[in-house]
Design a protein that fits this description.
Layout: H1 11-23, H2 28-41, H3 52-57
Helix pairs in contact: 1-2
């Protein structure tokens, strides 16, 4: 992949981009990529699947961290050779 720097963007566009990114639970950078991808590849070309980070951001912020803590003594051996 390559990098692209966009300069001298109107404040109102930047604000709309931030709002849209928040709505889609993405970073501003990922939202910008999605807009470019949808606009330029929207003619039927396969768009990449959602990133893992973007997927995690769609999950609701519920529960306590302790709900996901490891229970001591519950670790088991796993055979990864097969």
């Amino acid at each position: 992949m390559t990098e692209s720097i966009l300069r001298e963007v109107e404040f109102s566009i930047v604000e709309k981009l931030k709002q849209r990114a928040e709505k889609h639970h993405r970073s501003v950078e990922e939202e910008h990529r999605a807009i470019l991808r949808d606009t330029l590849l929207g003619d039927g070309e396969e768009a990449p699947a959602i990133t893992f980070e973007a997927y995690l951001r769609t999950m609701p912020d519920v529960g306590m961290d302790t709900d996901f803590s490891r229970i001591e003594g519950s670790i088991r051996d796993v055979d990864l050779a097969n």
